[in-house]
Every structure is written in structure tokens, then in C-alpha cells.
Design the sequence.
């Protein structure tokens, strides 16, 4: 691993995206988002993912000039069409719009179809919270988990995000419905380690913690077994029918993972002029959790998003740890 | 087990609730809901729970005359105070109100504080779907799971419900954030069986599938380990701060589980006049899932809510299976 400063990474990426014909404004937004994702420790959906994003531009899945457009609307709910533009740019815009609607109506929803991978979903949870909004966001994906009891992967891991604004640091939950991301399973494989818990099925339809076996079958385990299976399915249903977009089934019919459906739901808690009561209630829950005796002496218990803030601060100070080969690859693309 | 017809059960319960001084209208609603829950196979939050509900009336946690009242409102979002009335009656009313708001605004939310156990959360998902609405509903509870890495139970299992209306049968997900309900763990204990997967921690802080050990510690496992831990915490935060109500922490300070906070969010999909497109998209996802080859030959793969419909039909035909001792107990209470 090498250390790269956030400013330098953003600068390199900005030039890279300019080279690939993005407008200056869009190149800036993309560079900023990929850098922030990496700064927060999510390299898998930050710098590591840039080469694949470029591939998706080259194969035509991501249309660099496309813009998300508003379709049918009804009060606080709007359908948007992403027109196969970059997932990050569409997601930024739809989060902004859901925030605007929430500030007008108390709640606001954007249901987006025909978009591309938004990289780290939590990014838009942080964005909404920075704008003072609670957010509930989710996306469908290509299939990578079998429905409970089934052999083939027919469910997406459908990342699900909830964020709550808080003065001392937002609360942000960013979780895929799979027990482990395939990127994470691959990390274990490379390091020759077993997963700490079962993460998918082997060739004999037995649950396994062997990353080698799971990456072979590409059948991941949903959180909570049958529960996550049902949750993943219903999130796909909600995104698909509210956006009138592609389901995981339809997404899987193409060669590339594109044309996704996503939900951006924001709530503006300041409609209740509570004079700090909400902040106090939030801290009451956090304090109660922090206060628990750890199972392993010295361990700490965290609220969702807390460790992200720690990683962000550390990487801002020391530079962002990046794989040397990934960074070389990105530099080569920029030449 | 004995078989009781739904009509007979409802009649017995109606008279029981009249005896405990509920108005005729409320006694009817309670009897109907407890019966429907049992008809759908959820005895644990149907007939089995009636004696405990009567205890809660006797100990003053449930106030039979109390009505939920509207508090602060902002457009499509309303705060209600349950005034410690029966959880079922408050939940029915708030679901109705969220449906009304959704039909006016596209989306509607009721955030309810100071209510009691709503029994089966799915009931209100079915109710919203019958009224043509998508629903996202959740409640906090007393603590019964440790936050990830902690020793004591400080998180509720916070049931989470999502429902989608569908002509051929609604899709209804009704899941607690715990891997197994304590009632279920107790069933395994009585039958002298192990859980099929770990369901909580033993006295040595080791994950266990031994129901005896888990019921001793009362430390249940969240779905997806650290993921469910974070999900449970953030659901408690949302319910608490939107309702300005009690958190799991506050609920745990009393002797009884009362004064809960709940969210009722409804969306009215007919705002998009899609002429059956949504139904088609829903069925596309269901068909894709049904179509998967099962791991165990002869097994079927279900969408959320599908088996409930099967159980309902079976029990309507053959009568509802009820534990003999539970039924005797209920009859004694009615005398």
C-alpha cells in the first residue's frame, strides 16, 4: 500500500475524467466522489473501481453525456430516467432532488430508472445528512445470491442505506443484503484466509466459509439466511415498480450490469421544531450503546458511520492507503 | 393441538374483551385481529398472546379507554401519541391514517409514540396492501440483542415490515431483526431440538444454536451479525426521533414493555397510472424466483407472504390449530 493525499488523488482523477471527455463540472464531481469514497476507506468503490468505470464507458454501458431527466411526478414523488448516465452523477442529482422535495413537503422521493452503479451507496446517505435530511436509499443490482432454498443466484445484494443527520457526526448505515461483498470474499481468498462466518454456498449446496469455493459458485449468502433473501427480493420489487425500471431479472439479461433501478427517499426532520430534542434522543441511544461492556476486553462498540469518520480523519492526516498496482493502473489510464 | 374455527375464536375473544370493559367496537377489532393473526399461523402473536395482553391491562400498561391522538403535523407527516392504548387499536388507526395521507399526497407517514405491542406487525402490512398501498412499518421493542461486540442486550429486535399490493396476493415481508424470535427459540427448547443456525450467545460469549443456553442469557443474534446490529439501532433511532418517543433504552427502564415508538410509512402506487405495468413487473420478479431449481428436490421457493396465504386458506378450511392448554386458558379468562 502507498499513501496518496486526497488532493492529489482528486487532481489525478479530474484529469483522467477530462481525458475521457466529461465536462469539467462532471469530471470534478466524479473525481471528488471517487476520492471521498476512498478517503472513507471504501477503496473497493473508490479508486479500485475507476478502471472498471472506464471500461464501462468504453463498452457503452455508461453514457458520458447522458443526464437524468424528470418523468412522471405526483407531489412529493418523482420518477426520473437516468438515461444510462454515470451512476455517481445521477445519484448525486437524485439525492439533491429528494432533499429539495423533503424540504418542501416533509418527505420526498425520487425513483430512478436506467442508471449505472452508484459506487458507494453511503455517499448519498452522507450527502443527504449534510443537507439536514434523513435518507433511506436502495438500489437493485445484478443477481449474486440465490433466493432461499434455490440453486441459482437470482437476487441482487441490493445495498440499503439509512442516514440520520447529527451535529457531532451523522449516523450512516450502508449495507448490502449479502453477508459479505464479493470484493471482500476475494480479499480473503488472496490472503489465503477463511471467512469468519459462512458467506455463500459451495458446489454441493452446502454453506461455506471458504472464499475459493464461494467465488467459484458465485452464490453469496443473504444476511439472516431466509430473512435477507426476502428483504433483497422486496427491495428489488419496490425499486422496480416505483421507478418503472428494470428488475434484477432484467438487469441480468444484459452482458453488463447497467440499467439499474434505485430509490431515494428523504425526510426533513426539522419540520418538527424540536429545539435539540431529536439530537438528545439520538445521543441517548448512542450513549447507551457505547456504554455496553465489550465481549473482548478493550473492544469498542460503534454506531453506524462512526468508524467511517475515524477512517476519514486518519486518511486526511496520513494520506489514503492505496494499492500500488491500482494506483499505477490509474496513472496509466490518465496518460 | 385442537382445531378452532375462525368464527368461533373471534366470538369467544369478542366476549372476552367485552368482559374486560372494551367498547363493543374495540372488542370487535381486537377479537378480529387476534383471530386473523392466528388464522395466518402466527399463534405467538395471536391466540397465545391473549393472556399476556390481559395481564398488561391488569398491570396498567395497556389503558383500555385510551385513544391515539394527532400531535404535530407537517403536510404528509404526522406525529401521533398512542396514550398507552392497546397496540393493535393504535396500529390499526395509524395505518389507516398513513393510507389516507398517501392517497392525498402520494406518500404519508405517521410516527407514533407511547403505544403498546402491536402483536403481529405484518397485520398492518396486509391492511395497507388491502387499501392499495405499499407500506414500510417498524417498531422498537425492549432490548433482547447485544450490539455487535457487546455483552448486554441493548438493542430491540425491532420488527420491520414491507408490503406491496398485488391482485393475485399481496407481497408482505414481516421480519424481526433477530435471527430467531425468542418464542421460536423456546419452541425448540420444549421440543429438545437445536436451532438450525446460531441464534444467540451462551454464557461464555460464544455463538450458540442451543436454545437452552440462549434463553438463559437472553442475548439474541441479529440477522447478519454486525449488519443487523446496525440496522436494529438505526430503526430505533428513526422511530424514536421521528415520533419524539421512547427509545429501546427508555422502554427498558420500565418493568413492562410499554411506551413504544413506531413508524407507519405508506406509498400509494396508483399515483402512477401505469395500467397494470407495476403488476407485470412484480410478477416478473416473482416468476423469476419461482422458476429457480431448488437445492432440495421437491422444495418450492416462495415470495414474502406467499406461505401466509397458503396457511390462511388451509386454516379457513380445516380450522385453526391451537394448543389445547392455550385455548383452555383463554376460555377460563372469558368465564
Sequence:
Amino acid at each position: 500500500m502507498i499513501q496518496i493525499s486526497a488532493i492529489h488523488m482528486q487532481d489525478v482523477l479530474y484529469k483522467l475524467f477530462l481525458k475521457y471527455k466529461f465536462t469539467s463540472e462532471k469530471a470534478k464531481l466524479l473525481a471528488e466522489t471517487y476520492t471521498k469514497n476512498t478517503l472513507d476507506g471504501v477503496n473497493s468503490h473508490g479508486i479500485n473501481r475507476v478502471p472498471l468505470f472506464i471500461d464501462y464507458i468504453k463498452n457503452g454501458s455508461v453514457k458520458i453525456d447522458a443526464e437524468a431527466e424528470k418523468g412522471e411526478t405526483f407531489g412529493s414523488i418523482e420518477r426520473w430516467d437516468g438515461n444510462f448516465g454515470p451512476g455517481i452523477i445521477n445519484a448525486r442529482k437524485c439525492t439533491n432532488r429528494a432533499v429539495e422535495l423533503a424540504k418542501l413537503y416533509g418527505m420526498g422521493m425520487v425513483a430512478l430508472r436506467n442508471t449505472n452503479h452508484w459506487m458507494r451507496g453511503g455517499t448519498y446517505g452522507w450527502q443527504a445528512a449534510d443537507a439536514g435530511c434523513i435518507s433511506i436509499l436502495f438500489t437493485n443490482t445484478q443477481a449474486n445470491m440465490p433466493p432461499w432454498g434455490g440453486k441459482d443466484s437470482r437476487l441482487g445484494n441490493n445495498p440499503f442505506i439509512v442516514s440520520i443527520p447529527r451535529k457531532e457526526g451523522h449516523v450512516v448505515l450502508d449495507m448490502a443484503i449479502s453477508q459479505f461483498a464479493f470484493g471482500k470474499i476475494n480479499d480473503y481468498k488472496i490472503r489465503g484466509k477463511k471467512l469468519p462466518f459462512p458467506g455463500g454456498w459451495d458446489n454441493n449446496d452446502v454453506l461455506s466459509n471458504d472464499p475459493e469455493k464461494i467465488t467459484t459458485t458465485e452464490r453469496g449468502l443473504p444476511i439472516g439466511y431466509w430473512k435477507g433473501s426476502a428483504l433483497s427480493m422486496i427491495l428489488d420489487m419496490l425499486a422496480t415498480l416505483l421507478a418503472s425500471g428494470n428488475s434484477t431479472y432484467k438487469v441480468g439479461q444484459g452482458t453488463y450490469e447497467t440499467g439499474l433501478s434505485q430509490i431515494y427517499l428523504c425526510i426533513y426532520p426539522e419540520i418538527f421544531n424540536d429545539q435539540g430534542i431529536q439530537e438528545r434522543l439520538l445521543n441517548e441511544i448512542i450513549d447507551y450503546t457505547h456504554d455496553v461492556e465489550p465481549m473482548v476486553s478493550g473492544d469498542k462498540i460503534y454506531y453506524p458511520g462512526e468508524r467511517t469518520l475515524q477512517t476519514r480523519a486518519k486518511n486526511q492526516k496520513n494520506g489514503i492507503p492505496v494499492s500500488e498496482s491500482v494506483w499505477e493502473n490509474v496513472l496509466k489510464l490518465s496518460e
Notes: Chain B is about 45% helix and 20% strand. The radius of gyration of chain B is 20 Å.
